Amino acid sequence: MSFLLLLSAPLIAALFLVLLLGFTEDDNRLHTFIVDPFTMLLVGAFMVLLAHLRPKGAQPDQDWYLRRRRAVDFLLVCFLAGFWTMELLTYFNYLGHPFLPGRTGNDFMWNGYLDFFMGRIVDTTVPTYESARMNLLALPLFLSQAGFLWLGRQLGLKIVRRQLADAADRK
User: Fewer CB in 10 Å around end: N or C, the chain?
Assistant: First the structure.
């Protein structure tokens, strides 16, 4: 099991970097409200797994795991606060489109990833934050990111627990 974890960690890291940096073949458009929750899932799991790496043969005690878990929780809250700050600034056009200077931040939040694959799905010629209906649609998408980050954390903890159980079975 630990071999699979070691094999998958670089793949998860590479996927996260692709999502973070925004590389695509055509116009470098990635992030959007609709895909960010899944990014949060990966970030949550990856941070937990990264924090619980330990040298081979090390036998950390329960306090070590509790300290790591608290540190991860603190870092996840900081990450979410920073991510939400940047998203709000982008949504309300205080920050522009990170890859295409001619486009607005509001356009980026709605059409970022999906525009590359399917074309524009939301018309942002009039900023969507001026529409109460679009704000009501954006709010659950925005808030769901915290839930997906928590699910990613839980997934990471489940993998860590399974690793510990496998290690205990081998002894």
Answer: C
* pTM score of the predicted model: 0.71
Q: Which long-range contacts (CB under 8 A, 24 or more apart) does 164-170 make?
A: 166/1, 166/2
Q: What radius of gyration, in Å, describes the C-alpha atoms of the chain?
A: 19
Q: 163: which residues sit within 8 A by CB, 6+ positions away?
A: 1, 2, 5, 52
What is the spatial distance between Cα 74 and Cα 20, in angstroms, rounded to a whole number?
21
In whole angstroms, what is the distance from residue 65 CA to residue 14 CA?
A: 26
Q: Quick one: tokens of 70?
A: 């608290």
Give the separation between CA 29 and CA 113, rounded to whole angstroms: 6
**pLDDT single digits (tens) 38-92:** 888 999 999 999 888 877 777 777 888 889 899 999 999 999 999 899 888 888 8
